[in-house]
Amino acid sequence: MAAKLMDFDKALELFEPVLGFEVHVELNTKTKMFSAAPNSFGREPNTDLAPVDLGLPGSMPVVNEQAVRHSISLGLALGCSIAPSSRFARKNYFYPDLGKNYQISQYDEPIAFEGQVEVELDDGTLVEVPIERAHMEEDAGKLTHVGGAAGRIQGAAYSLVDYNRAGVPLVEIVTKPIFGAEHSAPKLAAAYVRTIRDIVLALGISDARMERGNLRCDANVSLRPRGQVNLGTRTETKNVNSMRSVERAVRYEIQRQAAILADGGTITQETRHWHEDTGVTSPGRPKSDADDYRYFPEPDLLPVVPAPELIEQLRAALPEPPAARRRRLKAEWGFTDLEFQDVANGGVLAEVDQTIAAGTTPAAARKWWTTELARLANEAGRETSDLVEPAAVAELQKLVDAGTLTDKLARQVLAGMVAGEGSAQQIVDARGLAVVSDDGALIAAIDEALAAQPDVLAKIRDGKVQAAGAIIGAVMKAMRGQADAARVRELVLARAGEPGA
Length: 501
What we know:
The protein is an alpha+beta fold. It has helices at 8-14, 51-54, 65-77, 185-203, 243-262, 308-316, 322-333, 337-345, 349-357, 362-380, 390-401, 407-418, 424-431, 439-452, 455-461, 468-478, 485-496, and strands at 15-26, 81-82, 89-92, 102-105, 112-120, 126-138, 142-146, 158-162, 169-175, 215-225, 235-240, 270-275, 280-286, 296-297. It is built from 17 helices and 14 strands.
């Protein structure tokens, strides 16, 4: 049964939304958080394993030094203080994909705490989001439910467990309650996740591929009646894996909770699942409090005590903040406010930057990412940034610049790239899409078109140059669009100027 929803504007008249986000960032270290098993993606299930990842008796965890460095860098980039000493803890709960029956995490002694990050909304408004903590932990494995509806456990015949992801290094970033977002709450949710993605990409500590789960967001939403001091009961929508979905999930929860509260009902404190296909959330499990996890210090690991010199070294290596970087890039690229807003709102700032770095002009990079790729992403219901690598877009544009492809042909090639057919050059070769550059072949097609429309030459010679369009169109059709229309026009006009032609 579909949930009752209140109109969004009406919900904001009656209630104040309070937000909170828990963003999980998988670190791109070579090995896992507490073992020497490879930290990779896409390998055969249950091949990247070590005894400690499975919780086998007698296995002992060893902290990944690079993961600690990455975590400190991220904490500093979030404006956090770095703890002179932090400790790991055991978070006890049972999941089939967590072999130890507990997760090694951090609880009351996180490595980074008390920070804030500047988030820029679509309209240029800057919002300071308060950070409570950023702590290190390990990821769980992955369950695949077979036979159920939409891949969920309900109705599944059986489940498969892949422990490859178990033990992958994570940093969980937890915000404090965020007040004052009002009508911008859904937009702020997406902008915050986008900012975290920009930060970790700039630091080089994560691949931040949301479709792969490298970056995941748990979105907390609660409502309180206008004028009330106490916070409302929150829900936590788990593991939302795109910025578009984060925005939609927050909007949906505001409308759903408002309808319940307006009818005199109460909100259940619970986790909820986001359904991309239907655009709704559904109940998960009652949300546990910290006491339910029975945290206690991890007895097999010493406290993490980073040297002050290391912290300052990592602080000195920090990249510029995302908001400052945006202002710089806008000036360097020479974009208007609207042009830059198209890039920023599309969530492809990093991709455009990387495409330019690979050798294209800012205008060309913006064109591909904010028009054709955005269209393909919208049709597929995916994030634009997930479709293709920036270097591949740069390769495509180089073929256009070299005259190998027209823009129309390049769009066909791009669709093939997104479909996984290979590189731009491979698709051009396989489909035979290169522009016909042989003037002899073009002149033959022009003469054939002129023979079919003998009056065109006379019109051109009488000064009616626009009449050449009929011949150009016929030649482009004959060449299946694989001709340079500008070159065809030059040859048609040259033909018209030849005596006896």
